[in-house]
Amino acid sequence: MPVLELLQRRIAIAQELQSVVKTMKVLAAASIHQYEQAVESLIEYNSTIEMGLQIVLGSAVYQHHAIAASPRKLPRNSPLGAIIFGSDQGMCGQFNEQIVRYAVTQIQHLSIDSSQLAVLAVGARVIPVLENAGVVSERNFAMPTSLAGITSRVQELLLHIEMWQSQMQIDKIALFYHKLRSNISYQPQALQLLPVDNKWLQDLQQKRWVGATLPTFTMDWSQLFSALIEQYLFICLYRALAESLASENASRLVSMQASEKNIEEQLAQLLAQFQQERQTAITEEMLEIVSGFEAIRAG
User: Fold this and answer.
1) What 3-state class would DSSP assign to 57?
2) Among 276, 262, 189, which Cα is nearest to 21's?
3) What is the pLDDT of residues 186-244, one digit of tens each?
4) For residue 173, what are the β-bridge partners?
5) Which of 125, 141, 41, 140 is nearest to 87 (CA)?
6) What would the pLDDT profile of 28-57 be if each residue is shown by its tens digit?
7) Which domains does the chain have, with CATH numbers?
8) What's the 3-state SS for 15-49?
9) CA distance 219 to 89
10) How far lies 258's CA from each of 23, 142, 193, in Å?
């Protein structure tokens, strides 16, 4: 009986774990959908910003600024500010290791000296992985735990980028994050946040306006252009955070599916062992009853 009691306890524990894993799978799937919707909601907003830039860049005043005519090119070995998005929570497989490997490889291709590199880590669990790769993060930001926390985190990152530019003369900023491909897959992504891609600006300037009338503006050109670029930067950072969070939950979903399979296999083995032990115990009890009956009858 002690063996049966031990097996019953192990079966109960396995069933509890199975319930927890199923709950975590549901939560991960719901989170993926939530962050996917957040990314999709940026499409229309980004389109609005691009339309605004199209008007501003196509105006006569733009010719005096000549931004696209003389594109800004930074030296190859100029300082780089890298923002690497990982996770704060565990049970997401090789999520942090993969993004660090990708970021380090991309930075090495740029031939950036360590003295010219500044790194921000978003997510506590990515820090030790960076340290193991020989990369020191000057500051760590926590990953938002919900959609409501993304906006404030973006604002904090923008303030730090502004500090990089004003105090450290870092004008080249790159983002490294995971981009969701499906509910169970993702891939690392790199985005040059600054300087803004001049080809993109030129394409917007040359793009044909689809409306019947061309909008005008009375606001100062420089202020309006700067405000639109700030919104573009906001969108890029918001998308990076939302994509990374969706990918983190996709990785967690895969881990939970593997855990659920292992638990089911272990539970099946425990139940089979329990049934075998129970049948053995019943057989032994029946033999004892029969033996006792025969002893009484013989006596």
Assistant:
1) helix
2) 262
3) 999 999 999 999 899 989 888 888 877 888 888 899 899 999 999 999 999 999 999 99
4) 81, 194
5) 125
6) 889 999 999 999 999 999 999 999 999 998
7) 2-26+255-298 (1.10.287.80), 32-210+217-252 (3.40.1380.10)
8) HHHHHHHHHHHHHHHHHHHHHHHHHHHHHHHHHHH
9) 45
10) 14, 27, 36
- Tokens 């409306």 -> residue: 211
Helix H or strand E segment including 5: helix 2-58
CA–CA dist 98, 178 (Å, integer): 9
Q: Residue with structure tokens 């880590």?
A: 121
- Longest CA–CA span in the chain (Å) reads 121
CA distance 90 to 53: 41
- Please give the Cα distance from 236 to 217 (Å, whole number): 25
In sequence order, the 6+-apart residues with CB closer than 8 A to the CB of 270 are 7, 10, 11, 14
**Predicted confidence (pLDDT) at residue 94 exceeds the cutoff of 90:** yes
∠ CA(261), CA(263), CA(267), 5° rounding? 120
129, 155 contact by CB (below 8 A): no
> What is the spatial distance between Cα 158 and Cα 235, in angstroms, rounded to a whole number?
11
Tokens of 299: 């006596």
Provide mean pLDDT across the span 152-176.
96
Name the token pair of 102.
């990708």
Contact indicator for 127, 140 with CB cutoff of 8 Å: yes
Place of tokens 């565990």: 90
